[in-house]
């Protein structure tokens, strides 16, 4: 029985470990945190920093193949592992995904092959000279740190040059990318899995709603996204993966914007070199989950085109819920209160996933609720009831 290793021990690693174990693999997790959600359930938990040479050597020794769940794993660590074991995705792909400027340059390179799907107009801000030379068409805009941002952290919306300069100061004058603020009509994302044999399969296209920069709801069913746009987004994502020589699971996020002709156009936002929060619905609504696809890609097993067997809605469960002043189950309080899972689970087609995190904190991803059902109307109805029980805004 082979062992699959994973760099990072968060909830994505935990769900990878669960999928790997379901298929009979042993697992090894490298993560510094004693209570990491994946480390807690893995056969091996190597507790060390992501760049610790001894820990990396130990991970390589006990693993037959290695993947990552955490996009900020140092690319050199992946490169050193790759000298010893198959590693997917590779260091070069991860390094591009870690840097918004490199990522956007890759998207630009792919545009010709991509039916013209491009990133938003943007510029790198690495120096006071670049700051001063910013084109007027990029304002109002969003200034994003090139590295380490997630869930809307490390970003500032800026109206004019004065706000831009102040925001760059506030972000610590680190390398940034300024993007034009686009009027978004909607957002979607696509997950593909690609094998070392270049075989590539795509999951259905997810429609995503964000709140305060964090994914709140994902909807995947007929009618959520225009089918022609969905096909275009899937083809663009496959091209982006192919041109990276990518192996593993990749998620690419898109904006839907007015095309000026009464329709919608696609703008590519960013990619994640791993399974993605927007792909969690696959656990209960598809015949292969994004985590099983990751296991297959990493272990060199065949990839099959996933089939969605139910309309799906995923609700993200953030730590705020445990303190929700407007939910029926809790008063505003400093002590976390468990949300009413018994009432939620009494609704048809609800699947609760909690990540085993020790404590709830506002903004912390604690789990998600997948909702499946026989029809779109049934799934939407259950989602509406679950949202009301949890005191969350309606769809
Ligand atoms: P993630 O947690 O998905 O990695 P992130 O912190 O890397 O998020 P982005 O995905 O770049 O950040 O942006 C977060 C959200 O902010 C987007 O999903 C979108 O709602 C909004 N946003 C980002 N860039 C733009 C833009 N150029 N125009 C309009 N809205 C934008
Ligand atoms: Mg991001
Ligand atoms: Mg994003």
UniProtKB/TrEMBL annotation:
Provide the E.C. number(s) assigned to this enzyme: 6.3.4.18
What does the record list as GO biological process? Answer: 'de novo' IMP biosynthetic process
Task: Could you list this entry's UniProt keywords, alphabetically sorted.
Answer: ATP-binding, Ligase, Nucleotide-binding, Purine biosynthesis
Main EC class the enzyme belongs to: ligase
Q: Where does ATP bind?
A: 100, 144, 149-155, 179-182, 187, 210, 269-270
One Pfam family of this protein, by short name?
A: PurK_C
ATP-grasp domain: residues covered: 109-299
- Catalytic activity reported: 5-amino-1-(5-phospho-beta-D-ribosyl)imidazole + hydrogencarbonate + ATP = 5-carboxyamino-1-(5-phospho-D-ribosyl)imidazole + ADP + phosphate + 2 H(+)
Q: Which PROSITE patterns does the record match to this protein?
A: ATP_GRASP
A GO cellular component annotated for this chain's UniProt record is:
cytosol
Q: Does the keyword Transcription apply?
A: no
GO MF: 5-(carboxyamino)imidazole ribonucleotide synthase activity; ATP binding; metal ion binding; phosphoribosylaminoimidazole carboxylase activity
What domain of life does the native source organism fall in?
Answer: Bacteria
Q: In which pathway is this protein known to take part?
A: Purine metabolism; IMP biosynthesis via de novo pathway; 5-amino-1-(5-phospho-D-ribosyl)imidazole-4-carboxylate from 5-amino-1-(5-phospho-D-ribosyl)imidazole (N5-CAIR route): step 1/2
- Quaternary data: Homodimer.
**Which family does the record assign?**
Belongs to the PurK/PurT family.
Q: What is this protein called?
A: N5-carboxyaminoimidazole ribonucleotide synthase
Q: From which source organism is this entry?
A: Hydrogenophaga borbori
């Amino acid at each position: 029985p082979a062992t699959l290793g994973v760099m990072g021990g968060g909830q994505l690693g935990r769900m990878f470990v669960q999928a790997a174990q379901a298929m009979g693999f042993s697992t090894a997790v490298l993560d510094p945190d004693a209570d990491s959600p994946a480390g807690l359930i893995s056969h091996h938990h190597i507790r060390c920093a992501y760049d610790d040479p001894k820990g990396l050597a130990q991970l390589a020794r006990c693993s037959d193949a290695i993947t990552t769940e955490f996009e900020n794993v140092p690319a050199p660590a992946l490169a050193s592992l790759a000298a010893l074991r198959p590693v997917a995705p590779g260091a070069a792909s991860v390094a591009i995904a870690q840097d918004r400027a490199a990522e956007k340059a890759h998207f630009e390179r792919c545009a010709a092959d991509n039916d013209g799907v491009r990133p938003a107009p943007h510029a790198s801000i690495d120096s006071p000279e670049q700051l001063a030379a910013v084109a007027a068409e990029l304002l109002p805009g969003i200034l994003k740190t090139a590295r380490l941002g997630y869930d809307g952290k490390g970003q500032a919306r800026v109206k004019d040059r004065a706000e831009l300069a102040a925001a760059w100061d506030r972000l610590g004058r680190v390398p940034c990318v300024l993007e034009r603020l686009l009027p978004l009509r909607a957002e979607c994302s696509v997950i593909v899995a690609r094998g070392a044999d270049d075989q590539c399969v795509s999951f259905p296209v997810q429609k995503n709603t964000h709140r305060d920069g964090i994914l709140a709801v994902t909807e995947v069913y007929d009618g959520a996204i225009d089918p022609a746009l969905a096909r275009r987004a899937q083809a663009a994502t496959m091209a982006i993966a192919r041109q990276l020589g990518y192996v593993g699971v990749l998620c690419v996020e898109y904006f839907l914007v007015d095309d000026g002709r009464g329709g919608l156009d696609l703008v590519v936002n960013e990619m994640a070199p791993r399974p993605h929060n927007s792909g969690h619905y696959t656990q209960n609504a598809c015949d292969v989950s994004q985590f099983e696809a990751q296991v297959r890609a990493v272990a060199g097993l065949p990839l099959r085109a996933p089939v969605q067997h139910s309309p799906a809605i995923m609700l993200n469960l953030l730590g705020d819920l445990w303190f929700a002043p407007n939910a029926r189950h809790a008063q505003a309080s400093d002590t976390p209160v468990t949300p009413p899972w018994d009432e939620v689970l009494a609704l048809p087609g609800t699947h609760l996933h909690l990540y085993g995190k020790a404590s709830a904190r506002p903004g912390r991803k604690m789990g998600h609720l997948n909702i499946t059902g026989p029809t779109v109307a049934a799934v939407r109805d259950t989602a509406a009831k679950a949202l009301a029980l949890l005191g969350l805004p309606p769809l």
